[in-house]
Amino acid sequence: MVEIALSSFVFLMAPLPKGRPTVCLIDSEALRWNFRQVRETIGPDVKILSVVKANGYGHGASGVARVLEQAGTDLFGVATLEEGVELRQAGIRSPIILLAGVYPEQVDELIRYDLTPAVSELAMLRSLEMLARGRGASLNFHLKVDTGMGRIGFIPVEIDSWLQELAKLEALKLQGLFSHFSHADSVTGDYTRCQLEVFGLVINKLHERGYDPPFLHIANSAAVITFPEAYLNLVRPGLMLYGIHPSPETTHHVSLRPALSWKTRILQIKRLPAGASISYGRTFITPRESVIGTLPVGYADGYSRLLSNRGVVLVRGKRAPIVGRLCMDLTMVDLTEIPGAGLGDEAVLLGRQGGETISADEMAGWADTISYEILTSIGARVPRVYYSSKED
Questions:
Q1: Beta strands of 83-220 (E only): which ranges?
Q2: Residue 181 burial (CB count, 10 A)
Q3: pTM
Q4: How do the domains of the chain map onto residue ranges?
Q5: Which of 15, 36, 215, 257 could anchor a disulfide with 176, C-beta 3.0 to 4.6 Å?
Q6: Is the dihedral of CA 330, 263, 359, 218 positive or negative?
Q7: Top CATH class, 27-248
Q8: Residues acting as catalytic residues
Q9: pLDDT per residue over 109-128, tens digit each?
């Protein structure tokens, strides 16, 4: 670790790659801490499916999965076949569920990489059965039920028709049954309980017909934290694994540690007179003589253009406002109120510096979006560097 001391505070940072200094630091100890909070909350008898889709919510799927596999997760959840293949090629051996479904032409890769598809409608169920049977292969699958999300999944009132199809399966093996809460950020309320009740009725109907899938799951991060009735025998934490609370109501229930910090360094500093325009479109005119710093990060890195003239970064433990339109590769900040700011100083886009913190939720508020989008939008050209704060 490299220690950097400034006049008002001391902070630690992991070794950075040479060259362009824009980087995300991923704290593996924070990931392990958050995973332990899940385990302690649900107890020893409920299994954990760790959701690492969308490049591990922007944290780097392979790196995150290695940490969580070592921490003891039972399964992983991704969205697409390509995400599942990436994990297998990175050496991940735990079961991997493709939560957003698959396509018939992907059956050979499903078999080759031992991936488990989610199936949400009859045509796909029939196609996968035919294709797997033709190859003399056996394929596990999880069946998705739409209990009120209105997105994908079998409709509960049509259960008799799709139960008839399940009875015809030979190559496909029903390994799991799952659904998805509509109120993903806060699962308290009558609608959520209604969804769980509908899911329970489907489970009972399957049991009556002799089906006993090993995995039953509906609980997301919010349900893990606040809705024990939804645990069943498997939970699907996502956002909370990365240290972000799904809603303000959950912050008092469990202690989480954000795992990602996004940092760069000041590329250039210039002193401009009052009346100078900054960036495209002249959306910011300096109201006084100003010190303007340029950062090597832009919307091509996933740093949202909506932060223009709205967001801030941290420099020397103080907040520096973004001024002018954020560019594809560069962002300008006002350093006038930060004495001593210099070329090469660290600028924190997301995370902590000294006594100040910029959270994913705060950044999302500036961009009028949600923390999920902030994290998953961080681009591939931003390196992810893994370290452990336990070593500090």
A1: 96-98, 116-119, 139-144, 172-178, 215-219
A2: 23
A3: 0.92
A4: 2-21+267-391, 27-248
A5: 215
A6: positive
A7: alpha beta
A8: 53, 280
A9: 999 999 999 999 999 999 99
